[in-house]
Automatic annotation (TrEMBL):
Protein name in the entry: BPL/LPL catalytic domain-containing protein
Pfam family, one: LplA-B_cat
SUPFAM superfamilies in alphabetical order: Class II aaRS and biotin synthetases
InterPro entries found in the cross-reference section: aa-tRNA-synth_II/BPL/LPL, BPL_LPL_catalytic, Octanoyltrans_LipM/LipL
Species this protein is from: Pseudomonas fluorescens
Highest taxon in the source lineage: Bacteria
Record-annotated BPL/LPL catalytic domain positions: 26-231
PROSITE patterns named among the record's database cross-references: BPL_LPL_CATALYTIC
Secretion signal span: none
Length: 233
């Protein structure tokens, strides 16, 4: 069985950036990382740190057991804990693909294997926004109409600027910690003066519906099959 690497949230975010740097430098053809937090944090894009209420909201979040960390990808506040599995896919698209549609194609390459897994398990998989979900987006991976995976991406140029390299990230809710996660997001948003409020019932954890003991092993296989086809072009 594929086991995710246990890392603090800070170390996990750093490992993703290191993987992106390695592929950009040509040290690796691609990167695939599964990691599971060994602590808890509320992770959000760096742009939120410029808001007037950020410092007070960060202090309130830390006091409630959810210290704030900043990430390089976009989106909104996302709670990270041992209930989460992070999937990081790093690759350079074939030159034949060009830049048009690069962002959407990258999301599809991250999301389609997860949807395939959910379908194999007997679930109803879909992509799209879910009202009341934290860090909502049209490339959420949803199980039976509730958000299970949030996604984001960031692009850099490879060494010498010859081609773009993407870091495409998914945060998969493996176990049910929805209530405390939603409370953490709502606490931060309220103190920071952000209007968004999220709801626990808008989310679902994989293990709430399926035991899926070999889910990560299957995902690893699906991603590697996909990457082999991409790299062969």
């Amino acid at each position: 069985m594929t086991q995710p690497i246990a890392l603090t949230v800070e170390a996990g975010l750093r490992a993703e950036q290191d993987l992106l740097a390695a592929v950009c430098a040509g040290e690796q053809e691609f990167g695939l990382l599964f990691w599971q937090p060994s602590d808890r944090a509320l992770v959000m894009p760096r742009r939120l740190s410029r808001l007037p209420g950020f410092e007070a909201a960060s202090q309130a979040s830390a006091a409630s057991g959810w210290p704030v960390l900043l990430r390089e990808t976009g989106g909104e506040p996302v709670p990270q804990s041992a209930a989460t599995i992070n999937l990081a896919l790093v690759y350079a698209p074939p030159r034949s693909e060009g830049d048009q549609g690069r962002i959407e194609t990258a999301y599809r390459r991250l999301c389609d294997p997860i949807c395939e897994l959910l379908t194999e398990l007997g679930g109803n998989a879909s992509l799209g926004e879910i009202e009341g979900a934290f860090c909502d987006g049209r490339f959420n991976v949803n199980l039976d109409g509730r958000k299970m995976v949030g996604t984001a991406q960031r692009w850099r140029q490879s060494k010498g600027g010859q081609r773009p390299v993407g870091l495409v990230h998914g945060a998969l809710l493996l176990d049910d910690e929805r209530e405390s996660m939603v409370a953490a997001v709502n606490c931060f948003n309220q103190v920071c003066g952000l209007e968004q409020r999220v709801r626990a019932e808008s989310h679902i954890a994989l293990h709430e519906k399926f035991a899926a003991a070999d889910a990560l092993e299957r995902l690893d296989s699906l991603y590697r099959q996909m990457l082999a086809k991409v790299m062969a072009v």
